[in-house]
Amino acid sequence: MSRSARRQILFEVGPHLLAADAQEICEVREPSRATPVPGSVPGIAGLINLRGTLVVAGELATLLGLEPLKSEEATLIVFEESEQRIALEVDRLVGVSEVDREELDVKGDLLEALGARDLVAGVGQYEDRPFFQLDMKALFARVLDREGDGDGARQLGSPGGWEAT
């Protein structure tokens, strides 16, 4: 395994296996009810309170253009990038694996199968299943700044979020 190998958390969303770098995950917890925010990006449920800080919460399935399963094994994964956090519901945690980023397929036909090519960094293999490696920078941009102008929703995921009262 090369120096680019990193620990990945693998999880299912619909029929697909997805992966995210473990260093980008700060918490895994049971799903909690979100307070809706008018005008949110499709797939965003609203805001949740994580120990006094409001965090944008959503369904990863909807963000990827998939139908949410509403599984009994559903889990909320809290991702962090550049001091911003988002909490996304996934259908089921699968496992942990070391993945060599250099071995990801970044041009194959399977990339188009997900329908959200812009949110995927590549395709890898876990045991006997292919997985989609999420591009967390693109996912954060989609969730926190739908207009691409740096205004609006971005403040919801700003450092520290909004303090709950």
UniProtKB/TrEMBL annotation:
Coiled coil: none annotated. GO terms for cellular component: cytosol. Residues 5-145 form the CheW-like domain. Gene3D superfamilies: CheA-289, Domain 4, SH3 Domains. GO terms for biological process: chemotaxis; signal transduction. PANTHER family: CHEMOTAXIS SENSOR HISTIDINE KINASE-RELATED (PTHR22617), PROTEIN PILI (PTHR22617:SF43). This is CheW-like domain-containing protein. It comes from Candidatus Kutchimonas denitrificans.
